[in-house]
Amino acid sequence: MTLLVALSVGVLFAAGAYMLMRRSFVKIVIGLALLGHAANLLIYVSAGLVKGRPPLVDPTATVPALPHADPLPAALILTAIVISFAVMSFTIVLIKRAYQDIGTDDLDRMQSTEM
Amino acid sequence: MLLLTLPILIPLTSSAACLILFRQPRAQAALALASALGLVVAAVALLVAVHDGAVIATQIGGWDAPFGITIVADRLAAILVVLASVAALATTIASIGVTDCERARHGHYPLMLALFSAVCGAFLAGDLFNLYVWFEALLLSSFVLVTLGGERSQLEGAVKYVTLNLLSSVFFLAAVGLLYGITGTLNFAHLALRIDGLTDPTMATAAGMLLLCAFAVKAAAFPYFFWLPASYHTPPPVVSAMFAAVLTKVGVYALIRTSTLLFDHAWPMLGPGLLVIAGLTMAIGVLGAASQMEFRRILAFHSVSQVGYMLMGLAIALTCMAMLQTEDSGGTLHASEAAIPERILGLDPALGASLGLAGAIYFIVHHGLVKMNLFLISAAVLQREGTTDLKRLGGLLKVAPSLAVMFLIASLALAGIPILSGFWAKLSLVYGALVAGLWPIVATALAVSILTLFSMIKIWIEAFWKDLPETRGNVREVDAVAAWGVPRLLSDTAARRVLFSAILGLNIVIVAIGLFAGPIFSYTRTAAADLLNPQTYIDTVLGHDPLLPNAPASPAPVPDVSDDAGDSEVPTPATARSEDDDVDVNSETNLP
């Protein structure tokens, strides 16, 4: 399972990196979204996967019995997802607005601010 | 507790209040001004509380470190919070002068306050994920600020700015995940102990390099700086001033914090590597500036170049510390105790480390103030002339002599003319590099200084000294009407006076930090010593025992790495860490 998730992290990073190389801004944003998913999965898998052992505490104990799944990565990912949701919505509005005003989503034609 | 949270809470709450008042630009401006004044007071109080070397820390939510959300201030964080508060005050005053009511209705003030709240949060964050959250908060505010108004150039600049900064966030997040997987913690102090205890820190170093890339994008270091010259000159100059004062500084701060606290095992590689990056950043930035003919683009490229100096100080310090590590294999020196020797050129890594890092901190403060002021001066020029294109400007010395004097002081301070602040900053960096024997970076830094002076003089000659170009006539540009014919809070003259008062105030601060460089340097040298010897920081954050004897009985997130929790002493890196296992969720943990 770890191997499978690790592989999908790799595939997502590769796909995201490929999309980032494109000239179309829309595709770049898709690439950024893919990279964000890759990073989230990376947190998930690098903290270790434990199957079927929720971190619940037995009434007689003070700490959960080992081994148990670590809840912190899930909390981190949740926060990261919320943040990336906000950022993505902003970026998508930016795409629309940039396309309306500039008339293209080709980054090679967005050079009036350089040089 | 209150001392630490106020610099975050004051701007955050008033940002929310400004949102409620979104129909009343006048009320928003008043509230923002009051909030910025409060922020300055809170920041100075924080500075006073930590100036004698105390580190103060608090855990939000009441969970002990390393599980709670740690907010911590040491000397470095405090002085940067003061810088952010001064920036907030100056840009608020300037905004009242030049920001039009339409922008105010669309959230200029709330965004600005949210930005400064996030900046203070980033400086005070005590764990890596918290730092990530503050980074995102400040990015999101800056995204909207950079696009507010929706002009074509703004959108084009924003596309590049957003893309590269989101990429750096992905790097940051991936590094957070890897470090958590390796060490089982994200608290800075706890991470420092855990990374020291790793038997093989290679993976931690790899994650550290990922962090380095992420922060280098934020700091606009070579080769990641391209978003900055593409976007800094597009929003209204007041927004550029805000960004120039704090945005790249947060990246540099994160680099300083993580490289000194967490990755001391990587100093032999990190120091020289950063030195090369610093040299290239300053050289390429200044060459870009020298080739530009537009006021604000020159300033934007200069921001890149000056980040190189800050990195240079950090790189000198890390290289020197690496030398000391190999000398006594302990790496624990009290850099502040190193005395300045009589002879200049004897090699003295301890002094080099102290001067380099102290110079970098002083440089951050100096550059934040000076670059912000130069952008505000460009705002005044834009307001007066309707353009910042140097070819169409001229004769400002005659029509606005006081503004010309202000520009001269700020630009000479930036170039580093003696007795002004930039001189002391560069003196410290160059001296540090000399006693460390790093000649090439000294040569680069001095050559870049000359080019900095050259491009500042270029603005001076083109905008202030030469006569107004005849082709332009003596009327305001057409776009001046477009840009300035919209309703504002104040009349034209009043706005000019308000903006000038912000510029004058900043210049007084700039001259003051030059004149009182002595006391400020003794402060930054002790701040540097704290960074290079972070035991106080670690002890304060983790309290007596980092192994949670008082942890709540509820299901605390048990760290993955098994910990020798039997003893109740503070584990020193050498002893307690030696038995640590590798990362393994299933390894047995003997928590009490």
For the residues shown, what is the average pLDDT of chain B? 84
The portion of residues assigned to helices of chain B is 55-70%
CATH class of chain A: Mainly Alpha
Tell me the number of structural domains of chain B. 1
What is the total tally of β strands of chain B?
A: 2
Number of strands of chain A: 0
Greatest interface by residues involved:
A-B, 51 and 51 residues
Return Rg of chain B in Å: 24 Å
Question: pLDDT below 50 for ≥5 consecutive residues: which ranges of chain A?
Answer: none
Share of β-strand residues of chain A:
under 5%
Radius of gyration of chain A, rounded? Answer: 20 Å
Characterize the overall form of chain A. elongated
Helix content of chain A: 55-70%
Give the structural class of chain B. mainly alpha
Physical arrangement of strands within the biggest beta sheet of chain B: 1-2
CATH architecture title of chain A: Orthogonal Bundle
Q: Ends of chain A: how far apart?
A: 50 Å
Layout of SSEs?
The complex is a heterodimer of chains A (115) and B (592).
Chain A: H1 2-20, H2 25-46, H3 71-102
Helix pairs in contact in A: 1-2, 2-3
Chain B: H1 2-20, H2 25-50, E1 56-60, E2 69-73, H3 75-98, H4 101-105, H5 108-124, H6 128-147, H7 152-183, H8 188-197, H9 202-219, H10 227-231, H11 237-261, H12 267-290, H13 295-328, H14 349-385, H15 396-399, H16 401-415, H17 421-435, H18 439-465, H19 478-484, H20 492-515, H21 517-532, H22 535-542
Antiparallel strand pairs in B: 1-2
Helix pairs in contact in B: 1-2, 1-5, 2-3, 3-5, 3-11, 3-14, 3-20, 5-6, 5-11, 6-7, 6-11, 7-9, 8-22, 9-11, 11-13, 11-14, 12-13, 12-18, 13-14, 13-17, 13-18, 14-16, 14-17, 14-20, 14-21, 16-18, 16-20, 17-18, 17-20
